[in-house]
From TrEMBL:
InterPro entries from the UniProt entry: Cro/C1-type_HTH (IPR001387), Lambda_DNA-bd_dom_sf (IPR010982), MLTR_LBD (IPR041413)
HTH cro/C1-type domain sequence ranges: 49-96
Protein name from the UniProt record: Transcriptional regulator
Gene3D superfamilies: 3.30.450.180, lambda repressor-like DNA-binding domains (1.10.260.40)
Segments crossing the lipid bilayer: none
SMART domains per UniProt: HTH_XRE
Species name: Streptomyces dioscori
Pfam families, per the entry: HTH_31, MLTR_LBD
Length: 286
C-alpha cells in the first residue's frame, strides 16, 4: 500500500539552507560513478549514486565540507564552490541557476513585486498576434492577458475567478483543461520543474508558496513530482491537445521574456503541422 504524498505549508517556507542540502543530496544520488568516468567499487553501495568522497574529490573541496552542506549546517558556499559543485554533479543550466538562487549568490530579478497585470503594450501584442493563440504569464503561471484564440484553445478565462486564472491550476484542477493534454504527465512535470525554479528565485512570493501548497495537497501527482526536485525552465517545446470541438491539435510554443519586464512572459502557440492548422481554424472564438 502506497502512502499519499502531500505538501504542507511548512514545506514552503523556503529554508534555503535545508533546501540546498536536500537538493545537493538528490543530485548526488542520481549519478553513478561510471557516468563520470570513475572506477566502480567492488563492494556494494549502501546508498544510490556517488559517495560524498567522490563529490568532494571532483569539486576540489573537503569531504567534511560536503557533509556539512548536505546536513544543512549553515554554510553559505562561495560562487567558486557553487560552480565547482555544479560541474561535479553535472547540473543542467537550470539546475545550476537554482543552486545559485538557493545560496543567494545570483542577482535577483529587477522586479520588486510579482506582476499581477500585463504591461499594456504586451496585452496589445497578444491581441495583434491573432490568429496565433498567445497569452502573457508571470513567473508563477498567472495568466495576465490573452487573445481570443488562446481562450478558444484552452478555456474562457474571463469566466474564471481571477484566482483560477493560472495555467498550472487549470492543468491540475479545471475539469476541462485537466483532460486536455495527450501527454499530461510530461506537461505536469515541466510545470513543476518551472515552479520549483521560480520558488527559489522568488522566496518572498507568498502567493506562489500558497499555490504550491494547494497543488501538493490536492493533487498527488504534483506532490510526487515536486519531491523529485527536478528543475527546468522550458522556453520552447511541443504540446498535443485533444480539443473537444476542434479535435487533436499539436502546437509548438515559444516563451519570450521582455528585457524591460522580466517577470512577464509572452507565450505563443503555433500549429505544428497542416492538420493542426486546420483544427486550429475550427476553434471557437470566445
Amino acid at each position: 500500500m502506497t502512502t499519499r504524498s502531500t505538501i504542507r505549508s511548512t514545506d514552503l517556507t523556503v529554508d534555503a539552507t535545508q533546501e540546498l542540502a536536500a537538493f545537493l543530496r538528490t543530485r548526488r544520488e542520481r549519478l553513478a560513478p561510471g557516468d563520470l568516468g570513475l572506477p566502480s567499487r567492488r563492494q556494494s553501495r549502501r546508498t544510490p549514486g556517488l559517495r560524498r568522497e567522490e563529490v568532494a574529490e571532483l569539486a576540489g573541496v573537503s569531504v567534511d565540507y560536503v557533509v556539512r552542506l548536505e546536513q544543512g549546517r549553515g554554510l553559505r558556499p562561495s560562487v567558486d564552490v557553487l560552480a565547482a559543485l555544479s560541474r561535479a554533479l553535472r547540473l543542467s543550466p537550470d539546475e545550476r541557476a537554482y543552486l545559485f538562487d538557493l545560496a543567494r549568490q545570483r542577482r535577483p530579478d529587477d522586479t520588486d513585486e510579482p506582476a499581477t497585470t500585463a504591461v499594456p503594450t504586451l496585452a496589445r501584442l497578444v491581441t495583434d498576434l491573432s490568429p496565433l493563440p498567445a497569452m502573457v504569464l508571470n513567473h508563477r503561471y498567472d495568466i495576465l492577458a490573452w487573445n481570443r484564440e488562446m481562450a478558444g484553445l484552452l478555456v474562457d478565462f474571463a469566466a474564471l475567478p481571477p484566482a483560477q486564472r493560472n495555467s498550472m491550476w487549470m492543468c491540475l484542477m479545471h475539469p476541462r483543461t485537466r483532460e486536455l493534454y495527450v501527454d499530461r504527465e510530461r506537461v505536469v512535470r515541466e510545470g513543476v520543474a518551472h515552479l520549483r525554479a521560480a520558488w527559489a528565485a522568488h522566496p518572498e512570493d507568498r502567493a506562489l508558496s500558497d499555490l504550491i501548497v494547494e497543488f501538493g495537497t490536492r493533487d498527488e501527482q504534483f506532490a510526487r513530482v515536486w519531491a523529485e526536485r527536478d528543475v527546468k525552465v522550458k522556453g520552447r517545446g511541443r504540446k498535443v491537445m485533444r480539443h473537444p470541438e476542434a479535435g487533436e491539435i499539436a502546437v509548438d510554443f515559444e516563451v519570450l521574456t521582455p528585457v524591460q519586464d522580466l517577470d512577464q512572459r509572452v507565450v505563443i502557440y503555433r500549429p505544428a503541422d497542416d492538420e493542426s492548422r486546420s483544427a486550429m481554424a475550427r476553434l471557437p472564438l470566445r
